[in-house]
Amino acid sequence: MYSNKECVIMTANQTDHADSNKINAIGNYWKPWFFKHAETCLKRGAFTEYIPLRHYYHRHTRSIFWELQDIIPFGNNPIFRYLFGWMVPPKVSLMKLTQTKTARRMYEQRHVIQDMLVPMADLSSALKCFDKELKLYPLWLCPFFLPSQPGLVHPPNNQDEMYVDIGAYGTPHREGFHFKDTTRRVEEFVRSVHGFQMLYADSYMTREEFRQMFDHSLYDKLREEFKCKKAFPEIYDKICKAARL
What we know:
The protein is of the alpha+beta class and 245 residues long. The protein has helices at residues 34-39, 41-44, 53-57, 68-71, 78-84, 92-97, 101-110, 123-133, 179-192, 207-213, 217-225, 235-239, 241-244, and strands spanning 112-119, 139-146, 161-170, 196-197.
C-alpha cells in the first residue's frame, strides 16, 4: 500500500525458464530499491518480469524494506546507487553500537516497527485503523493461510482461515502519534477482530490483554506437565515491555 487509495498487487510463480529480455536482477547494488521499482506500476501499469530466486528472497534487503529512506534520504538516487550502493545496507548492529542515547530515545518514541496479523475479512477496517492511527506508508501486505491447529495462534472458530500480515515500518506522520498510546489502540483493534501481533515487535498489552489475544490453553498445559513454571518465564515476561520495566 502506497497510500490509503493506491496499492500494487504482486503475484509470482517459480520457473526454470525465463525470457532473457525480461530478467531483472533487482539485487544488484546499482538497481533501484525494490519498493520504488514496484511503485512504478502505479504509472506504467501491469508488467511481467523474471527475478532470480536469490534476488527475489532479498528484494527488500538493500533498502531494509523502506527504512533506509529515513536513514539515507538520497539513497535511491542513481548516482548514489552507482557509486556507493555496494555499501548498503548498513549493518543494524553497527548503527545501534554508534547510536547516542538521545538518538535511541527518539527512535523508540518516534518510530514504528510492527506486524499485525488480521483476518482477510477485516482487512478493510484494519487499513482504516492503521491510516487513522499511524498514517505510515508504504504498508506491507502479505496474505497467508492460517490452519486451525492447537497453539497460541489459531483462528477463533476452529476453522481454517485466510489472514493478512500488515507490516508498518518507519516514522508515522499522524499528528498526535504517541509510541505507547497509539500502539495500544492498534493492539486493541487487532484483538477485537481476533488478530495477532508479531512478538518481535514492541508490545504494550497487559498480561490479561496478551492472554486474550493468544490462546494459552495448550501452552499452560505443557508448562504444568513439564514443570516449567519455576524454571522459565512466560512468553509475556520475555517480550512485553510492561513486564520488563
